[in-house]
Write a structure and sequence with these properties.
The protein has 91 residues and is an all-alpha fold. The chain has a single domain (5-88), classed as Non-ribosomal Peptide Synthetase Peptidyl Carrier Protein, Chain A. It contains three helices and no strands. The chain has helices at 5-20, 42-56, 75-88. Helix 1 (5-20) runs antiparallel to helix 2. It is globular and about 30 Å long. The relative contact order is 0.18.
Length: 91
């Protein structure tokens, strides 16, 4: 379990870095940054979904894994979605 929002936020940035193979740091990109602005394409987007599932022990429905889904539009929307999914699982 992630003790606070900053810990969760840092882990999301770390997963974004792993998915994109470039360093994505909070000091360079705000939580309002859109994933498309980070250069995500369909392959890196799928990789991101898998990495988030592994890191946070959560699952995304197939219909959630698309660029038009509000859960995957910005870094903040990812953080919010992860928190909601973890809360549903009591983590």
């Amino acid at each position: 379990m992630y003790s606070d929002i900053k810990d969760l936020e840092q882990r999301v940035y770390d997963v974004l870095t792993e998915a994109m193979k470039i360093k994505i740091r909070p000091e360079d990109y705000s939580v309002e940054t859109k994933l498309l602005d980070l250069g995500f394409n369909s392959i890196s987007f799928v990789r991101l979904g898998v990495l988030l599932e592994e890191e946070f022990d959560i699952r995304f429905l197939l219909k959630e894994l698309n660029f038009n889904n509000k859960s995957f539009q910005s870094i903040q929307s990812l953080i919010d979605t992860i928190q909601q999914k973890m809360k549903k699982c009591n983590r």
